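[audit] Reproducing an earlier prediction to check determinism. Same input, same settings, fresh worker. If the tokens differ from the archived copy the diff job will pick it up downstream; this log only records the rerun itself.
[audit] input (216 residues):
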Amino acid sequence: MAPIERADSSVMTRRAWTILAIGVLAVVASGAFAVASGRSSSTFKPSATWGVFSAGQWESVKERAVQRGFTSASVTVVSAMPLQNGKPFAFISATKNGHTCFMAVRGVDVAAPICRLTKPLLVFTMHDHAREGASSTDAGHLIPMTDMIGLARQDVSGLITTSTNPDGRPWRSGLPLLPVPGGWAFGGGYRDVTMLTAQNGHGKILARLHVPVAKH
């Protein structure tokens, strides 16, 4: 388990924004926002996998959750940042005896359940690469990235990533939070981020995590 963040002004990769958009759509579809063609929000059923897992992978993940006493139907992705090679990297939630817990997943390996968020931030990271400068005539080149998934306690109202621009000036950017039972989920793929800061609604700093910069 290691904290992570990202840095340069390009902020998040297109892949990161795509995964985030899937998550936002999942939240919206499960709420009271979705109304189209006279249908209620209950018509919209977001995928529990966010499209991150194949059918076979998802069955393996659910089986591991069931072995720990969680109900199969309750297993769902709450944050994800799959690696460039397609390997799943995500947080899932699942319910047992009416209580929701969270588990980090790498591939189909499921970590121990987290059933109470006692710290402001809980972050997992993995090393990755992204292709930069690609076009129809240029394959571009690979740059080192750090993929991150995390959970924030309910009293956290804002997450700020801090990185360093090429001219040495700091670059700060807010990180979207997705609601989950008892707190928030977040994730992304980053380059050069050095710090992740959690604040409450009054601007008080609840936690700072220093993030190792991705290496070539």
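[audit] rerun output stored. Observation attached for the diff report: Residues 14-210 form one domain.
[audit] end
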